[in-house]
Amino acid sequence: MAEALDIALTPAAAARVAAIASRQGKPAILRLAVEGGGCAGFSYRFGLADAAEEGDLSGDFDGATLVVDEMTHELVKGGAVDFVDNLGGAHFEVRNPNAQSGCGCGSSFSV
Fold it and tell me: How many domains, in total, are found in the chain?
């Protein structure tokens, strides 16, 4: 049995995913991936997906779906993806309880 997704997509992030997907004529599926690199060791990558891939974990949130691979799930589990629109700009942001440190821009972290 597949492990349940333990990463949330906030209502603000779900609404933004749905809006972007609608404009691009794609399904409202956001893929979150963690890659090696960035100034703190790992970096987050976001992108629209056409569908979940084999081995992905996924969850539905307010009309949008979040998909992650197993490695990303392990590094971000217990966290949440949010969409922030403030004076610093508009962007997706990961609140990751597993991160020991991060960079100033919030796009990379270390465990």
Answer: 1
